[in-house]
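Objective 1b of the project was to move from sequence-level analysis to a structural picture of ligand recognition. The entry below was assembled by the postdoctoral researcher (A.K.) and checked by the PI before modelling. It contains the amino acid sequence of the target and the SMILES of the bound compound, zinc ion.
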Amino acid sequence: MTTTTNGIDKKVAEILPAECQLSKVEFEGPDVIIYLKNISAFYSDDNLIRKIAGVLKKRVLIRSDPASLMPAEEARKAVGEIVVPEAGVQSVTFVPDFCEVIIEALKPGLVIGKGGSTLKSIILKTGWAPKILRTPTMPSATIAGIRTSMVKEADKRKKFLSALGKKICSPTTKSDWVKMTALGGFREVGRMSLLIQTPNNKLLIDCGVNAETNDPAKAYPYLNAMNLALDELDGVLVTHAHLDHAGFIPYLYKYGYDGPIYCTPPTRDLMMLLLFDYVDVVSKSGVTPPYDKKHIRKMLSRIVVRDYGEVTDITPETKLTFHNAGHILGSSQIHLHIGEGLHNLVVTGDMKFGFTRLFSPADVIFPRVETLFIESTYGGREDIMVQRQEADRRLMATIMKTVSEEKGKVLIPVFSVGRSQEIMLVLEEYAQTHPDFNFPVYIDGMILEASAIHTAYPEYLRANIQRRILSNNSPFESKIFETVKTHDRSGIVDGEPCVILAPSGMLSGGPAVDYLKRMAPEPKNKLVFVGYQSALSLGRKVQQGNKEIPILGDDGKLQSIKRAMTIDTVEGFSGHSDRHQLINFIKNIKPTPERVFTLHGDGSKCEDLAHSISRISRIDARAPMNLDSMRLK
Ligand SMILES: [Zn+2]
Ligand SMILES: [Zn+2]
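Corresponding predicted holo structure:
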């Protein structure tokens, strides 16, 4: 056997009973793959896999030696006989590069079987290692595209992952310092990016754009100011899919980065949806996007996914764990354990430490934390939101006043990912309990696709929504929702009272702006803001009451629209923590960090929150500026 696995193959050989007939040990990114000639000997001891994973402290996958795989067509038949028909198997795909059979099913639990018994039968009978994927209850072109490309690119991906795995396992010298550099999103909202550096490694956490501006000096992180060669980065870690956190990642691939991206599976899918759309939206506005779609595809081929709570080696000295952030589907807080106890840090990303219909509140328990980076979107003293119940009541009251009393139409601009699904749940519940709500709710743009992606990951949602999706009663598929094609819009605007949900949430483009143009002159209509409006956004101008709205016309020229429709803002739906929730998070986080940095908020909010944290909790808290560097250890 070769010694490219830094001694791991020897350890495996010591634990494995000889009758398993070890043929080779390989890396696939952070995972260890063990190939055996006699897989049934391995499965005769149920504790073996746990024992090996415990010793190696890595995720271990067991596969049959390629020579002992059953021919694909025969194996397909065998899978058909083993898996019960109620599982709703949609496709069975063999991927020889990984010795895997990918089984897509409506009910993955039934393919897995009790305690994994069905999976075990499949590998014992066919040799192929089963990988189970859930079919979303609503069709999703994004998910279908990602799954197809993973199979198509399997050979290239295999090469990439084994090279990455060797790098992660290579011997290293001990680091004696850790440093952070603020590259974007500090004292502002947009273009989030944070560099974490040791003598051995450079990791980038988030790499976003500010989509509300086309000025490169304000839109993109300060990557150039750092003398940072992109090919020196050891990994890019993504908190969540929103463009202000992930929108600039493909640019890294355009200019020399070829390494891994780490994120949760839903973040991967939502990123693909939002990034492809971003390139389209920017191109349509007559501006050249900072990268092309081919760079997004390259990025996809480099993504390594991890669920919440899986401790993963990402460099020889760094362990990464994602924790729930409660903000959008798949959103995570990043925990890094650097240099065997040298330093531990947590980056909250965008975070909700409070009630939402979709997600559990952000985690506050970590194994160790010395430095905390906390978002500050609503960190100002005045940023106290109303309780959710009250927000729901106000939203429905303002909607009912317009559609029922005044016979007007309501436009709600929403982020396609996050706020739209939360508002859909409020409307759906209200319709169930109020028969007088018999107005159509039109869903435009990417909201439908984003909702479909939610149905592929019920385990990331609150228990009651999870149950509804699993029992084929998904709230996103309620009959009150009608999906819209672009050519339907004029009919809707000229038609009966209704509610329209359309992106983008800050009116920076997308269908919401088209509706605004059509609906603005009618005083019976109403625009209701339910989400954050950043300083540079058109949404902020409209929200402040401007009667003249500057909108880009079809000819690409700026035109001014006179607004007669009324404007309302209902707060309390945010996927961000309000001031109380941020302070509560600090009071509840365990263990208490030694140092806090505030970020992702207007300058005054970051300063205000840092000041309050120092005063209340006696923790060293500050609000760094972009380009600030600080030694953490
Ligand atoms: Zn976000
Ligand atoms: Zn954000």
